[in-house]
Structure formats: structure tokens, C-alpha cells
Amino acid sequence: MILQLNLSAIAVAGQMAWKKAKPVILRDVVILPALGFLGLILLWWIIALWRSDLMPTPAQALVANLDFILNPFYQRGPGDLGIGWLLIASLRRVLIGFGLGAIVAIPVGFLIGMSKPAMMALNPVIQILKPVSPLAWLPIALAIFNLADPSAIFVIFITSLWPTIINTALGVSSVSKDYIDVARVLEMPRWRRITKIIWPASLPYIFTGLRISLGIAWLVIVAVEMLTGGVGIGFFVWDEWSRLNLSSVFLAVLVIGLTGLLLDYAVGQLEVLVTRRRPKPVS
């Protein structure tokens, strides 16, 4: 009897809490974001009416892009592919370059964070190379590989290194000295200190670096594909602009933005799975 009363009280309390939280969730998750998008569409509509000779309205862009939207994976010739295939081609380049960058950046970040001589030797190099524009690496990559696809992957690789290296080094160097001292007192081997203390404590910093690096990689691939051509969402944007087809450009912008959002969300969920803690927002 008492158990039933307790369960009933918990259920009533849960219902009351949900009734209080429901308007707030509805406002923050649905209404306010919808108002933001409506404001953006309204601004687009006003500008389109002002420049009606070149820019389509949202309704006109939707009608013009119905074929791309309804058939994203069509194949009508060597150079006539649906936007889904173009997106997959760009994602492949990004994930390969980003993956190679993470494989290099995380160990280098550990080395810098754990060794002062390594930090003194590598930090100036990082500070010099980090501000270099991604597109400045493209001519060097083309000279090395003489092909567009590996050159694009190389540019992604080199530009996605720095945030992960810096954040990993920061995470390693921020591990509490008390933990390290206790490990030394217990005569814990160096490799065990790394795997049991430093690595778990550094994971939030590492994932922050990975999320920033992935965002940069996705940003860069569009610009690189505009210059190198071939199959990809970036070249699609440039090709459609060359034809003065702004309706398709707006579709590509929407696809690029949504894909970047999903990529960041995926890494955030991976962080939750690995670290068992909610990730912090990355700007």
C-alpha cells in the first residue's frame, strides 16, 4: 500500500514538473528557432524582391530545386550527378583528411603537453603555421600530388591539425599535479599513468579540438573544391553560380549548413558515449 502511494506521488510530481517544463521546452526548442528561421526567410524574400532580376524568392528556389530535392542520387551522365552524390564525395575527402589529422594531432598534442622540451621546440612551428590560410596550402599540395583529390585531402589534413594539437596539449598539461604525484608514489609505470590518468582527464579537451577541427575541415573543403573542380558540393556551388543559377546555390548553402550541424552533433554524441558527460557547446 505504501509503495503504491509512493509511486502515485512520484507520478503526480512528474506530471506537474512536465506541465511546468513543457511551455519552456516548446518555446526554446520549437517557437524561438522557428521565429529565427522565419526572420531569415523574410529577409531573403525582401532582398529577392529588391533584386528580382537575379535572386529568386524562397518559393521560386523551392520549385526550381524540386528535382534535386526529390532525386538526390540520380545519375544522368558522367558530370550530371544528384546533390547526394556530390555531398558524399565531399564528405569522403573531409573524413579522410580529418581522420589522418586526428591520428597525427593527438599524439603530438600529448607529446607537447607532457614534455617541456617538445613544447619549446614545436610551439613556435605551430604558431607560425596555424594562421596560414588553408587556400595557401593548395598550390603546394597540387605541386606535390599533381592531382585534385589528394591535394584537397592534404589541405584538409594540414588545416585540421592545429585545433586538435592545441586542445590536446592543453588538456594534458591541465591534469592535476596531485594525480600525477599519487601515481609516482604508487610507482605506476609511465604508460599506465597515460592510459589511466592523463588520457581520461584529457578527453573533453581532445573532443573539443576534434569538433573545431571537423568544423574547419568542412568549411575548407567547399573553398578547395571551388578551385580544384571535380565532383563535390563546393564545385557544385561554383558551377551553378557560373550559370547564374542562384536557386541551386541557395540549396547547396542549406545542405552545407545542415551537414556541418550533423557532423558536429555526431562528434558530440561520440564524446557523450566515450566520456559519459555532456559536451560543451563549440562555437
Task: Please render the helix and strand layout as text.
Elements: H1 2-50, H2 58-64, H3 66-70, H4 83-114, H5 116-129, H6 134-145, H7 148-159, H8 161-173, H9 177-185, H10 190-228, H11 233-242, H12 246-275
Structure description:
With 283 residues, the chain is mostly helical. The chain is built from twelve helices and no strands. Helix 6 (134-145) packs across helix 7 (148-159). The chain has helices spanning 2-50, 58-64, 66-70, 83-114, 116-129, 134-145, 148-159, 161-173, 177-185, 190-228, 233-242, 246-275.
Features of the shown structure:
283 residues, mainly alpha
Summarize the structure in short.
The chain is built from twelve helices and no strands. The chain is mostly helical.
Gap between N and C termini: 52 Å
Low-confidence stretches: none
| Amount of helix | over 70%
Along the chain, the helix and strand elements come as HHHHHHHHHHHH
**How would a crystallographer describe the biggest sheet?**
none
| Count of individual helical segments | 12
- What general outline do the C-alpha atoms trace? globular
Average pLDDT level = 82
Helix-and-strand structural type: mainly alpha
Strand coverage percent = under 5%
| Number of DSSP E strands | 0
- Rg value: 25 Å
